[in-house]
Amino acid sequence: MKRILLVFILAAAVMYGILHGNLWRNNLYWLPPTAVERRNSLDTCLLKPAFESLLGVDKIYPFLCANDFIRVAEFHGSDKFELPYGIKRAEQFFRLALSRLQNCGLSNEGDSIACRRCVVVGNGGVLRNKTLGEKIDSYDVIIRMNNGPVIGYEEDVGRRTTFRLSYPESIFSDPIHYDPNTTVVLIVFKPRDLKWLWEILGGQKISAKGFWKKPALNLIYKSSQIRILDPSITRKTAYEWLNFPTRFPKKENEYHNINAEQKFLKKLIDKNFVVNLT
User: Fold this and answer.
1) Do 50 and 272 meet the contact criterion of CB atoms below 8 Å apart?
2) Which letter, b or e, does each residue of 137-154 get, where b requires 16 or more Cβ atoms within 10 Å of its Cβ?
3) pLDDT in tens, 141-187
4) What is the average per-residue pLDDT within 185-190?
5) Which pLDDT score is estimated for 246?
6) Per-residue confidence at 227, pLDDT binned at 50, 70, 90?
7) Which of 242, 214, 237 is nearest to 16 (CA)?
8) How confident is the model over 3-32, as a mean pLDDT?
9) Going from the N-terminus, what domains does the chain have, and what CATH number goes with each?
10) Residue by residue, what is the 3-state secondary structure of the chain?
11) How much is the mean pLDDT over the chain?
12) Which of 8, 74, 121, 190 is most open to solvent, judged by the fewest CB atoms within 10 Å of its CB?
């Protein structure tokens, strides 16, 4: 669980860089047609964030689109990696899952997100009694992870959620947590995750087989609110930055190096790539 959490944090940090900076100014030839159509006012960003230098690419689009995910995967080299770093041997599962989604844009309101102030909110106890809720809600884009609750903790964590990064085992299933203004980003670790999404959006019976924990058996979000993160972002954060293996052992934390991960996050803060609000 812990090793997955850091991937979520870093993936969210990459999304922070994408949303905060102007990463689509030129050379749009490789972007999905949908992405090109939806970039809109991203060109209005005046400041280029330092975080962009860490990405190692000039342009990036976070979500996969049904009509050209194969072409995008080939461009990033994701066709040479298996999940969670690519689409190799899972192309059909991606195709089925993406066919259920109505949108692959950055938001549900025509992708009008310009260069905005973004914050990544973790689920750790460090937020307790910090009364950062109002500060967090002052940001334009609020990124949260897994099923970290908002209800009942508003004073410390805020009320709004723009993006929530999840996987089948960590997505909300209780309607009390439904937020019509949230875009849920599925981070795929195995083909079964994609099959789960295809089945649950199709109203089919869900099997818990193949999951490390019982997945959500019902979905409280509309299909228009769901996106699938490009595995190339997971590969960048987990494989290239933290040197995670290409094949994971059965024991969750067998290769988990907490010290290395903490040092990496500290490096991001020291370089002012991100700011620690706590």
Assistant:
1) yes
2) eebebbbbbbbbebeeee
3) 999 999 999 999 999 999 999 999 999 999 999 999 999 999 999 99
4) 95
5) 73
6) very high
7) 237
8) 47
9) 2-270 (3.90.1480)
10) CHHHHHHHHHHHHHHHHHHHCCCCCCCCCCCCHHHHHHCHHHHHCCCCCCCHHHHCCCCCCCECCCCCHHHHHHHHCHHHCCCCCCCCCCHHHHHHHHHCCCCCCCCCCCCCCCCCCEEEECCCHHHCCCCCHHHHHCCCEEEEECCCCCCCCHHHHCCCCCEEEECHHHCCCCHHHCCCCCEEEECCCCHHHHHHHHHHHCCCCCCCCCCCCCCCCCCCCCHHHEEEECHHHHHHHHHHHCCCCCCCCCCCCCCCCHHHHHHHHHHHHHCCCCCCCC
11) 81
12) 74
Q: Are 9 and 81 in contact (CB under 8 A)?
A: no
Given strand 141-145, what is the order of strands in its sheet? 118-121, 141-145, 163-166, 183-186, 226-228
In this prediction, residue 164 carries a pLDDT of 97
State pLDDT tens for residues 20-44. 443 333 333 334 444 444 443 344 4
Residue 25 to residue 42: CA distance in whole angstroms: 8
Closest-CA residue to 60 (of 99, 27, 108): 27
